[in-house]
Predict the 3D structure of the following.
Amino acid sequence: MTSPKKVRVATPTIQVRVYPLVADAVESGVRYGWHRAHKHVARPKEDLVVEAITNAVLNELCELMVMDPAAEPPVAGEGTL
């Protein structure tokens, strides 16, 4: 009896276009942060706008990526969990 022939199946290669994903996340975060900064104040101070936009952009990026705390060196002054 002959053994069955092994068939090689090509595995598809997937390439993720990261730039458009990050660009969309940044734009979405900037828009959200801008609206958030102006939610209760008609003319917010620059610091409030920058903080709101920064937080919103970082939140959007964290939705796309997983940060591995073990891969990052500890920041001075931060305790370990």
